[in-house]
């Protein structure tokens, strides 16, 4: 069953979120509670643990590749969860989601081409585009009220210019938490079609969808110039450091092009741990996943109500999906350095700076909330005291 407290093994964890060099570098202190990396603090589902333990006790790691069972398990999961029909023969496997995106950028665009991203967006998109010698073309999402929306007119103008050869979509969107609706995606596709632009849709967060929202995969939209990175078990089952990336397309030509490259580079199969963990997750993890989703939805609701009641100066964007919440601290009226000090030194919060995601305004931060609720409650109570203390200290400059 789903539990919130990890059992303490005696292995020396190398978790990035606790890495004191990185914490010191980013926050100026390592005395912070980490909410900055998008992974979960919970123990994984017991069917996955059991599969891994069996594998360890087998004490044999002969060559063992079984992508077929993995693709069948992913297809069945998506059919049941999202009513999304995927042909198990239409997947290509890669070592991870980011390596998949990196390969697709290189495979389907040329040096100097533009790749459109909708900022603020997951920071690695820009890195992958630029490190491949391509140009990241920013298309800024619009805020209307307390939600973000796509700017279709700007997308059309950018595609019309001829510079953009690929759209890199993030659905659900990290960090703003939007789950793009079918209507929104149906508005995007004809624009891409008109300019024959390939859409790559990163759907790694596709299972983490909260009540009242429906996930629509680009794979369901009958646009054959598209490739979908179907959610990997990284985000929904906490297998971040041992999961693969699964690229899906009903377009045989696109698939064969990727497959030729992955096979030529021997990138097309997972290791035994990844394979067994993924099969166990999708075949036997439903009960655990539903408990995890209910837990994080409850945490999201608690955060929203706490912030609205106790810290109404802080604007937030209620996530429709993903375990990330996006805050705008403008209402605290602090200079950027003061805000940073308030968050990391006084409230001891390691939040991800919004500037990482291409957000120019330094008042924005992202918080990953796949952590025990009691811990989050203590952290946000500390934030409230830090804000109150700051407001009551007249000698501290505010702008
Ligand atoms: C939108 C998005 N894509 C990809 C990744 C990373 O995927 P992986 O580590 O499996 O390559 C993340 C991780 O936070 C993410 O949020």
Q: CATH fold name of the largest domain, please? A: Aspartate Aminotransferase, domain 2
The CATH fourth-level homologous superfamily of the largest domain: Type I PLP-dependent aspartate aminotransferase-like (Major domain)
* SS element count, helices: 13
What is the CA-atom radius of gyration, in angstroms?
A: 21 Å
The CATH class of the largest domain turns out to be Alpha Beta
List keywords for this structure.
binds pyridoxal-5'-phosphate; alpha/beta; 2 domains; 7-stranded mixed β-sheet; 4-stranded antiparallel β-sheet; 399 residues; Aspartate Aminotransferase, domain 2; single chain; Aspartate Aminotransferase, domain 1; 41% helix
Describe the structure concisely.
With 399 residues, the chain is α/β, with parallel strands linked by helices. 41% of the residues lie in helices and 16% in strands.
Note down, in words, how this protein is organized.
This protein is an alpha/beta fold. The protein folds into two domains: 136 residues, Aspartate Aminotransferase, domain 1; 225 residues, Aspartate Aminotransferase, domain 2, CATH 3.40.640. Helices cover 41% and strands 16% of the residues. The protein has 13 helices and 15 strands. The strands form four sheets. The chain has a seven-stranded mixed β-sheet with strand order 2-10-9-8-7-3-4, sandwiched between helices. Helix 11 runs parallel beside helix 13. The longest helix has 25 residues. It starts with 19 loop residues before the first helix and ends in an 8-residue tail after the last helix. The structure holds pyridoxal-5'-phosphate.
